[in-house]
Design a protein that fits this description.
Elements (H helix, E strand, L loop, with lengths): L1 H20 L1 E8 L3 E8 L2 E8 L5 E13 L2 E6 L5 E7 L4 E6 L8 E6 L13 H14 L9 E5 L3 E3 L5 E3 L3 E5 L4 E6 L2 E11 L2 E6 L4 E8 L2 E3 L12 E4 L10 H5 L1
Antiparallel strand pairs: 1-2, 1-8, 2-3, 3-4, 4-5, 5-6, 6-7, 7-8, 9-12, 9-18, 10-11, 12-13, 13-14, 14-15, 15-16, 16-17, 17-18
């Protein structure tokens, strides 16, 4: 009976702790009205980049479930299983990011209010199904497609500035360096960084901060980013930006 009482107390305490964490938290990413929102409610969470002030544009980076151990909040992504770690501060109602996307590291997000809407996101294919999809693609496309070192970006990666001129930097940018380093940015915001390795028509991107490996597929149209985190509206493919001073990637480079 005493054991049952202890278990019930633990369950109640966990529920109270999650209830205390529920709400909207945010921090500013840049001075251009771009924020990061972290919303938690009933054991679920969502992380979004929010642009604008009056008319807001939301881009989801991660969503899933969270748990609490002491004052550490552990967010587990529903699609890829990577972990984001937050440190809570009571009674100030703020959280600091200890492990997560590059731009969010060591940032402190302030609590701005309760979340009254349920968090409902459609969970994509799981990691096992993703792996089977990638393996099937590699079996069907054994001949390596050519790629080059340098910058890759979405075809919609442009915008009109206040002077009516087209400028770059309105979407996804992936840079593959010759020393096997890479960066992934969204509207000049650094999302992922680490090392990359090519295996046939698949490129593995290891992120040093999330301690997780993501994958992109090499296609005749460009780089298929279907298996990267986030819900971006630019499309699935990144095209190479011609940079004549860069060394061309050779197939034997990844066969060594």
């Amino acid at each position: 009976m005493r054991r049952l009482f202890i278990i019930l107390n633990v369950i109640i305490a966990m529920g109270v702790a999650k209830g205390q964490m529920d709400g909207y938290y945010y921090f500013n990413i840049s001075n251009k009205d771009i924020d990061c929102d972290i919303c938690m409610k009933d054991g679920s969470y969502i992380i979004e980049i929010v642009e604008g002030f009056e008319f807001k544009l939301y881009t989801t980076l991660s969503y899933g479930t969270y748990s609490i151990i002491d004052n550490e909040v552990i967010l587990k992504d529903a699609n890829y299983g990577f972990i984001t770690r937050l440190r809570s501060s009571f009674p100030i109602k703020s959280i600091s990011v200890e492990q997560g996307f590059v731009f969010s590291l060591n940032k402190t997000a302030r609590w701005v209010g309760k979340s009254y809407e349920p968090i409902s996101k459609q969970i994509g294919i799981d990691s096992i199904a993703q792996k089977k999809e990638r393996e099937s693609y590699l079996q069907l496309h054994k001949e390596p497609y050519p790629i080059e070192y340098g910058l890759y970006e979405s075809k919609y990666n442009c915008q009109i500035n206040e002077w009516g001129k087209w400028v770059r930097g309105n979407g996804l940018e992936l840079t593959l360096e010759e020393d096997n380093r890479y960066t992934l940015c969204f509207k000049k915001i650094l999302i992922l960084q680490g090392t990359w390795q090519r295996n046939g028509n698949e490129i593995a991107l290891y992120d040093e901060n999330l301690n997780h490996t993501f994958y992109i597929l090499v296609d005749r149209l460009g780089l298929n980013i279907k298996y990267l985190p986030g819900e971006f509206e630019e499309g699935l493919f990144l095209r190479h930006v011609y940079q004549p001073w860069l060394k061309k990637f050779k197939f034997e480079d990844y066969l060594k």
